[in-house]
């Protein structure tokens, strides 16, 4: 017996039903109904069922970057969210900021990483790669305007990260403190308060766009976790709704596990 509530999930299961039902008939549901002995489909299985034939879920994926979180971390998070297997290739960091030798640069189309290799095909630019996998993992809304809002919010988060960079690379602790105060004064009204208002006014109170998790949420959790790591200062301590979005992301079991087990790196 098969019970599924979502139309697209039913369609996907119908496509795959032969394989699944013949091997192991199961009673499943997209929602929890323990009273009726119905087993919920795990999010990972739901995503696998909903993936299309050319989804990266079936592809051979390699992510090439340095042994830091940096620009690759939102990509890794999206892939972990999607339960996507990938090879997390981490080259030793060649100093700070990372500068590759000319011969290493020649290995990459634009002389930079991250580089994702999907079934042998290369893809560059961290935001492009993150968005590509987000689309395959159900993290981009179908509505084009809502999808574009996700892009907008991710771009703003990147602007915030750029604004904090001077504090991250300050030469002394005293200089860092001064810069933190200045940057906070500038970024709070311009960016943080605006995000706070957007989330407070949302239907869920825990997502940036619509009432489901999107890659804008995952990118927000990445961005503020990363800034906090670099400057040892919780930038969103006075923004409870932003905190809620980040906590919601980090409470997804696969991301919680990733946060607990990922390599400890300097940046
Ligand atoms: N806009 C690019 C920037 C990529 C980038 O700056 N990568 C740095 C590492 S974080 C790099 O490869 N540096 C080595 C070099 O330029 O020699 C992106 O978002 O992917």
TrEMBL record:
UniProt keywords (A-Z) are: Transferase
Q: What is its EC number?
A: 2.5.1.18
Q: What class of enzyme is it?
A: transferase
Q: Where is the GST N-terminal domain?
A: 59-141
What Gene3D superfamilies does this protein's entry cite?
Answer: 1.20.1050.10, Glutaredoxin
- Pfam families linked to this entry: GST_C_3, GST_N
Per the record, the domain of life is Eukaryota
CDD domains in UniProt: GST_C_Sigma_like (cd03192), GST_N_Sigma_like (cd03039)
What reactions does this protein catalyze?
RX + glutathione = an S-substituted glutathione + a halide anion + H(+)
Q: Name the family the entry cites.
A: Belongs to the GST superfamily. Sigma family.
Protein name (database record): glutathione transferase
Q: Which organism is it from?
A: Orchesella dallaii
> What does the organism's lineage look like at the top?
Eukaryota, Metazoa, Ecdysozoa, Arthropoda, Hexapoda
